[in-house]
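Supplementary Methods S3. Complex input for the magnesium ion-bound model.
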Amino acid sequence: MGYVDVAGAGFVLPDGRELFADVSFRVGEGAKVALVGPNGAGKTTLLRMVAGDIPAQSGSVARSGGLGVMRQFIGMIGDDRTLEDMALSLVAPPLREAGARLAKATEALDETEKSQIAYANALAHWGEVGGYDAEVLFDTVTVSILGKPWDEARSRVVRTLSGGEQKRFALDLLLRGGDEVLLLDEPDNFLDVPAKRWLEQRIKESNKSILFISHDRELLAQTADRVVAVEGGGAWTHPGGFTSWHEARSNRHERMEELRRRWDEEHEKLRELVFTLKNKAMFNDGLASRYQACLLYVGPDEPARRPHRQARGDLRGPGAGEPDLPVRLGDLVRRPGRDPGRERHRQVALPAPARGRRQ
Ligand SMILES: Nc1ncnc2c1ncn2[C@@H]1O[C@H](COP(=O)(O)OP(=O)(O)O)[C@@H](O)[C@H]1O
Ligand SMILES: [Mg+2]
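Predicted complex, serialized as structure tokens:
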């Protein structure tokens, strides 16, 4: 069985905006993991990264097992693609290439010996890479979804199918196929209620490892073993199902709020210290150097970055991986960086108030 391991993945948009950073999660063997989050949070981008369509700009993605991908646009196909084109787009690359070669050779077939040899070779290659087994699979799927054998359905233009039929065709093919890992981008879109229940059942009974994006609460509640929430420029994993996710999320946000409040308090103390040192430095050379050192940490205008309302993600679920924020006077503190929760910041000593000396 296959798995997916994402470790510290990040993506910056072409305009320089950081879409997400430091995203880590695992889809274990046979697990059903849901990616949830608001529109525009980066779920599709993350899934495309796992699929290998786009490289991880930072971090890494590891995978094992054959991979089947259903992209978000399926259900909205409006061009002249046939069902055969769509079926081939959903199978493993060697089969896809052999199918395209055979289709081309079939089209070019005429009286010439050259075209006939090319056709014979393409057909032999199709058989070698498992094309006949794939045709049996395609036939099972078209009979099940459209009530027609593959030979009758294969040339049908996909846009003559409803969005729901397009989706169900793709889903049935992937779920019946041999790929061990499936990535499904909004598989429930365009499905009516009975079709959604059908999908729930199929995902639940499948032994494949499935990472899917959905906004459908019922589907999420029925199928997800764990939930990866993409939000606030990161992601965090809830190690339970969707039913308990809301409570976990609200607890998490409360903890973030508390950390933020404590951070504000500590920050206020630091600002006061800077103010005091600044005044005293005017009359005392010793304090002038301390004041300059202090500015490394708390700038004259803007201090270290305030914690996010939602903290960066982690592998261990709510509560873990929170930024360690409170700073006390005299502590070895981190210089402000892009992300207060990460470890790689330079550290500087914040001068403690001198003992025995009046401030
Ligand atoms: N290659 C790209 N160039 C410019 N913007 C992009 C690119 N890829 C994604 N985006 C933007 O990134 C954001 C997240 O997109 P997406 O991953 O589709 O989000 P989601 O699936 O969570 O709704 C969107 O604002 C989208 O326009
Ligand atoms: Mg999307």
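The chain has three domains: 1-81+162-243, 90-156, 260-349. Confidence is low (pLDDT under 50) at residues 309-359.
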